[in-house]
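hi support,

uploading two proteins for the ticket. first:
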Amino acid sequence: MLRSHATYLFLLLIALFSSWNMPTAVTAAEPADPASTFAQGVAYFQQGSFEQAAMSWMDAARQFEQKGQVNEQIDALIHLSEAFQSLGHYTKAATTLDVALGLSAGPDRVRERVIILGQLAHTVFALGQSDDALKQIDEALTLARTEGQAFGMASLFNEQGRMLISQKRLPEAITSFSEAVRLARETDKLLLLVTATVNAATAHLRDGNPKKAQDLLNQAFEESRSLHASHDKAYVLISIGVASNDLRSHLPLRHEALLRRAAESFQAADAIASRLNDQRARSYALGHLGHLYELSNRTADALILTRQALHAAQQVNAPESLYRWEWQIGRLLKTEGKIEDARLAYRRAVATLQPIRHEFIAASSREQGSFRESVGPLFFELTDVLLHLSASQQNPDERDALLVQARNTVEEFKSAELQDYFRDDCVQETRAHITPLETVSKATAVVYPIILPDRLELLVGFASGLKRFSVPVSAEQLTKEIRTFRHLLEKRTTHQYLHPARQLYDWIIRPLERDLKTNGVHTLVFVPDGPLRTIPMAPLHDGTNFLIAKYALATTPGLTLTDPRPMNRENLSLLSVGLSESVQGFPSLPNVEDELGNIQKLFGGQVLMNDQFLVASMERQMQEEPITIVHIASHGEFNSDVENSFLLAFDEKLTMDKLDRMIGLFQFRESPLDLLTLSACQTAAGDDRAALGLAGVAVKAGARSALATLWFINDVASSTLVSEFYTQLQDPTLTKAVALQRAQLDVMQDPTYTHPGYWSPFLLINNWL
């Protein structure tokens, strides 16, 4: 058994070394014994030199293995995983811990197994597998209780609480932190006690109890005085400072006291980091202190501190903090009116952020909020600067070039956000096929809304070029109107939706009308962002007609995510699957059988209905036949968490990963999947991230286009509209967008279905040709 683990570890180390960019400064000779190598790693780690620490612990693990010192080898692997986590390499950390877990089998290594399981839960959570992570925490807690390991339990409760905070399960998180504090106090583990107390303060703040949060932070700060100077103490003080600053807006009467506490914490952290030569910790302490000065409108002092933070981050090659301080410098320079200098700083921040592994960014966003909340403002602030620079340009070519840069900046964010949602590189692979959409057809305009805090910007691509329209509506006001519109669209017994339908038309379409008419536009392709993804554009109303009566419509999650080649209609091959029966607690869809029958009459192909619609059967059909259209008439749900997004098959839920593996095969065939239809799916109202999942389904699945619904609609109306869409699709002179437009207009003629709640939720996503 040990030999097999040794072989696996050897292969693991080869793999880790092969992908490692070793800092050139590390040229010291390797210590003669593994204990010295291990101690060297500890020293590097305390200085914030995580790359060097990882190299040392890799060597130590290998040396311990050669000497047959299994317990020491496990310890080295656990430390190595911590270094990988600190660098954002969570997959490598998980792989390392898997090896350590295998070595820890046996009754005499329970303590090590508890530690490994806790660390593994942390890495799994960072990789987005929150349910699995919490299960691993529970497993580790059960083992620790059995062995009476109070300190191990305290660490696990602290980790559990952090996970529960990110899931907004705040009362449960508070209970976990309370247990962690109690057990840490019982076992006299002061560092863990202070850490869990700060985390509990964060939970209480988010749960609406800022006074309790401040009491806990004061307690944590006082107890931290007894900690010896260390890397860990520096970061505890930084977390106290950040939490104290977050409290300021919730306790205005204690504003100055909290400001002093935050500053004191950051200064103390900087002093410790300087003494230890821990440049990473110095970077964070100085950068956050600079942010305090920024908030106090002391821009010059803030710039000095932020540049010092930047220098510290550069010394240890720490891009995860470097991009933050470049970003902060951009904000400060913009405040000083130095717009061109601000642009350069923002651009450096984006350039620094891009190469960072998406694991690191995704993990940090799970700690700080959504991906959009954590890094989105950087991209939109740069976009704002570019738009300001464009407006000041007299040269038309330079003005247009800046508009393109602004649009491309948002496009970078959209691609990164979609990649974060699906947790893989499918988006980057798709971006390899880029064609400017506005050049595909002179009769098509691409509408690119950019929602900024104080206004809505519309960048509209015509065949003749890009044009900018600025609408003075705040993001808050626009979002409120969108939420109201979506809610009222689903109330099919009233016409209350008309007021927001007209208001949104006035903001989004009215400014473009003259140019749309001048350019002879018949099709609008929207690239919606944020809350705009949660509504269809078809029912926007000009006071006389719906938008769909004037234009064929399509949507795409990003300009660079769409392959605009026309659909090949000569050799269409259809696979239709669906459920008319009630399955797995979901209601029956009685009209699905007629829907699939009608489609089969038009295009032929294989039909898998009810108990024939098994995941394995569908996969087999797609492997054996050159399918070009897949039609799924079954319940589907898109959630803010991709793990909870699925399409319902008879035997199981078809997750996005399974759909990707199934349909992704078509990317390697001469005939790609032209169309994926989901005729009964839904997203939660007001859930922008769930709508992102729906918008990105074609990208994820490798399909050129998708037809899907934002919310579940009347079964008869859905079947009628879908059948008409396929009927129109038989005409090779019509684009898919026009086919959908005609189907929607046809359903509207039925007095029963005139309300847009029945016909408007259908979206044509990506390729509209």
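and the second one:
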Amino acid sequence: MRFDRPVTRVYTCFLAYYVHVPQRHRSPRGVCQRSDVCQRSDVCQRSDVYQRSDVYQRIEDYPNTMNDRYLGALDYYTITGRLAEHTSFSASRELAERLRPSEDPETVQEQIQETTEAKALLSVRPDVTIGGARDVRPLMRRAEIEAMLQPTELLEIRQTLLSCRSMRYLLLRLADEYPLLADKALEMQPLSEIIDEIGRCLDEDGAVLDSASPELARIRRDLAVARDRVVDRLRGIISAERNAPYLQEPIITERNGRYVIPVKAQFKSRIPGIVHDQSSSGATFFVEPLSTVELNNRWHELRIEERHEVERILLALTRLVGEEAETITVNVRVLAEIDLALAKARYSIALRGVPAERSEARWPTVGLGDSPPASEHPIYLARARHPLLPAESVVPIDVYAGGDFTVLLVTGPNTGGKTVALKTVGLLAAMNQSGLHIPAMEGSRLPVFSGIYADIGDEQSIEQSLSTFSSHMSHIVDILGHADDRSLVLLDELGAGTDPVEGSALAQALIDAFVARRSLVFSSTHYSQLKVYAFSTDWVQNASVEFDVETLSPTYRLSIGLPGRSNAFAIASRLGLNEEVIAEARALLSPEDVKSEALLAHVASASEEADRSRTEADERLTEVRALEETLRARLAAIEEARRQVLEEAREEGRQELDALREEIRRLRSGLSRGDAPARPANEALQAVEQLAERVAPIRPAEEVPAASPEGLQVGDRVYVTSLKQSGELLSLSDGDAEVKVGGFRLRTQPNRLRFESRPVREPAANTSARGISTPQADSPGMELDMRGWRAEEVASALDQYLDRAYLAGLPWVHLIHGKGMGVLRQVVRQQLAGHPLVASVRSGEQGEGGDGVTVVQLHKHRE
């Protein structure tokens, strides 16, 4: 099942060619250029005439597609079946059912982007549809050989072309928002001439209109006159009193295309004429009177002329369609591709899927001993769900691999979820390479695999005399022959079905072989020896599905780094087995098994303790940060109050001093006019001036730069009192200062800054912070879906999102946290409290999500 293995394949129809051949391998017209006949879609499969070698499409040296057996083991075809349910007509449904994963990264990326564009289109235009389109490609061959198409078939062609034209115009108008879909739409041609001509000639029921041709209009006028003449003559006959006894009933009817009257059998000779029919009882003869024969002949001749003219019109329409048969075929193919993209989008909405990020890294990404964060591994699936299990009951799992290990050994009890975990990884990888969104959290990453191999389930074969073990081995032998360093291998119950000792040894040897190939392997096992092996082997990691001994039920959660513990004795004890029997069973264990189990239990206990400590540390850190913010807010409030008191006192002192100066000047002026000396008044005035000098410059000590008597300087570390945040001073001018706080810049007044520190600069440094600028950030979107997040994930991710939203100039954003128990909402609200970028916070209103959404009003961004 190697994607990169050159093969020669023969396709007998265009649809098979399109499904199996990536776009970059197709000809510009989308079909094989060696044969014109093969462009007629799957017509060749419906007629022996076309089963000739020259109509086959032969594609040489094209990479083979994925082995159907391995896809079937992952239930991939159930996915394509569900996808097909979202299609709108047979051509796109067949594309969905034949959809296969691609190994080409560019093709995968393009298909995923098409799905993303289609999902965005449906979010704003949920009524988008292909209308009443039909797969009319089988009719094109008939049209080309001028085999007359029936009116209903022509109407199907017209309706399909109308759908193509409408979809083309819609997508071209929205080309800026949906470029890939618009590129596809450009391949379709409107063919308005055919649409208009069929509409001019046929009504909605398929009847040929009089306006189809002047000749048809003339014939139908003459036909109406001829009919009226026949009917008038017959009415005269049946209304004559002398003929009344001979008539079965006085009506005019039609037999064999001629107007007749019903005559009683015993009186058929009384009205001369031609007998055209007899009733089933034999009591009535249907007679055409001789006096109406010529009139009937004329009416019948005109009907024949009408039929010939209608056939001529239909044949002309058929020729018109045949001239554009190739274009119509391409239109239907492109419309099917667009409908498939829309079906993928609808399926994504149903799954609550997201596009997986493309992982460029090749594993391993780090050296031995290193352990990168889970999200930095080449394969990282966060809160991944099996797409075929009910969303309300399936337990999401977190899976990562490829960083410091390439083999993940999953252990745990039966029905504990090991096989589901393996299938989830393989199925999501196959879905991703088929251009589908995956049911996981945003940020999940997947590489593009050259092949996905799965040995899952029991495939005994009585006919081939294969046991369970033999069946597994035959598959593994095939996998070993094809897997390479870009392959994903999924092995369920590795080494099972044979002697445990030999099976365990064989499993270790197989894992070593896959490690040597650098294949990415996920395997489940029951062998305790493999747990110890994983601890002591490079590039191999343990994992387990958790089991609750108290309730005797699995939790289905996957824990990477911890092996599954043996719960046989605990379960037996909980079920009431005699303790003496359990004790005897423990005594029968070999010392190596006891030692291994004790070692694994110790490691598991240490890991659990480390997790608890890490969780407690994270909680303490969150509390400390919250307390720090609270204290900082209180200090800022105290500082502001102190400044206000000082300012009021300074103003009051100035007013009193001004009043005192004025009083002394008045007294001195009076004394200067008298004989008394003015010296005492002058001394008093001088004392007041000295007092004013002491009172006027009152200013908080914090405003004076400790290291710069001259004032603040560019590059200083300052505290912005209005934001209660520290930052770097970028520029300073009269009445205006620019400060960088975190990842954004702001302008404020210098008197709202407090000096904190000044960096030490090298004498040779001549750079200035005045040139620093932050580029305008791209919009992160007005919604952040946080459902499923852990509390410790909120702080950093929410800060980064608010920074980007502020820099992008968004006036408000919606934080989607869901309702649930309200824990996540409380954490989000605590993080928003006192945030410098947040102007206001409220719950969502009716139609916005209610208590499951928090609406945040942001401060206006000042450039």
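thanks. also noticed: The first strand starts at residue 6 and ends at 11.
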